[in-house]
Amino acid sequence: MGMVLRSKSNTSLPTHQYKRVSEEPQHATRRAQVPPSGRVLSSSSSCSVLGSLLKRAVLVVGVVAPVMFILTWRHLFSIDVGAVLVENGGSGSSIENTFTVRMNTFRRNDLLKRSAEHLASCDCVGQIQVVWSDQENAPPSMDLFTERTRRKVVFEVHDTNSLSHRFNVTSTLGTDGVFSTDDDLEISCADLKFGFETWRASQNTMVGFSPRLVTRDPGTGRHSYRSWRVVRWNGVYNVILTKCCFLHRDHLRTYVDEMTAPLLAYIDEHRNCEDIAMSVVVAKFHKTPPVWVGGRVKEIGGDGISGLAHHFDARSNCVDFFAEEFGDMPLLESSVKVYPMHTGLLSWL
User: How far is CA 27 from CA 22, 24, 30, 31, 35, in A?
Assistant: First the structure.
């Protein structure tokens, strides 16, 4: 499978150059610039992630070819690594070549069925752990699924209702790789496999399809949670949403061990922000920036809470609380993008 790695300059932008971009921007003629958030991804950190991916490609393929440089107003360069298969020293065992899905669901059995059936059809999926936190309803009968899907699905029933249960594993995790997702998303098996291969090249970080950006106002100290449009326009991000994200199982353990009682209580009270919290935890305790991988993610449900008018304010308040509780905001900015050749360059320009 072809792989393209792209990065842009990691030079920090002075705050006086910052021009605010509306969360619903109109067609603009010039690029907006974003200020550094709590901590800026240094050139060495960015190169570390990019270098890890390239080194992995060279080890497997033996040569990086062809190399293609594309200069645009938004992206500094593009490297096409032909026919890269990111494998752990070869074909490996079936466990090494699969990952575990952890899916959040709540009273949407129709979406659960559709998502689980699709994921079960992907050879790279070893098991689907459905996180069940509904205190009023039991999980549906396994008859809901086809025979193929029943072989992969396991219900993990919790005795409380908490968004953080998606990271609180009580089942057996037989793989290092974990794909965290929601019941209302669908991504092709090819893109899913590519995301997994990308994660395997840099397993200590989060690799996902839904990047976001948190910025900080140096005057007020307040944080702002920015929309996908701001990320796409600027090409910079420091959060990967766990609705569609690969993690190492150690990241889940770190979340459980390091999230304080006030943090967990805040998430439960507001029913929000456990995904941002995971990005903060990985940045603070694993010291790695996230990686944005390309792929077509289809939403098969409604807008959910992200469609509510107060969504961005609520998420920004979460980040302020996290920064206060942790003592800083350790999110690491990144502009690395990895995408499969079948996606096509134009979709990323």
Answer: 11, 10, 9, 11, 21
Query: Rounded distance, CA 279 to CA 215, Å?
Result: 14
User: From the candidates 80, 182, 184, 275, which is the catalytic residue?
Assistant: 275
3-state secondary structure of 24: coil
Q: Is 80 a catalytic residue?
A: no
Q: pLDDT digit string (tens) for 250-274? A: 999 999 999 999 999 999 999 999 9
**By residue range, what is the domain housing residue 129?**
3-8+31-348
Number of structural domains, the chain? Answer: 1
The per-residue pLDDT for range 211-224, each reduced to its tens digit, is: 999 999 999 999 99
**Residues in the chain, total:** 349
Output the pTM of the full model.
0.77
- CATH code of the domain containing 339: 3.90.550.10
Q: What are phi and psi of 223, to 5 degrees?
A: -100, 150
| Domain assignment of residue 340, yes or no | yes
- Residue 161 C-beta-side C-alpha neighbours within 13 Å: 12
Strand partners, 130: 103, 155
Angle at 160 between CA 157 and CA 166, to 5 degrees: 60
190 with 115: CB under 8 angstroms?
A: no
Question: Contact at 8 Å (CB) between 303 and 228?
Answer: no
Distance CA 159, CA 217 (A): 40
pLDDT band at 76 (very low <50, low <70, confident <90, very high): very low
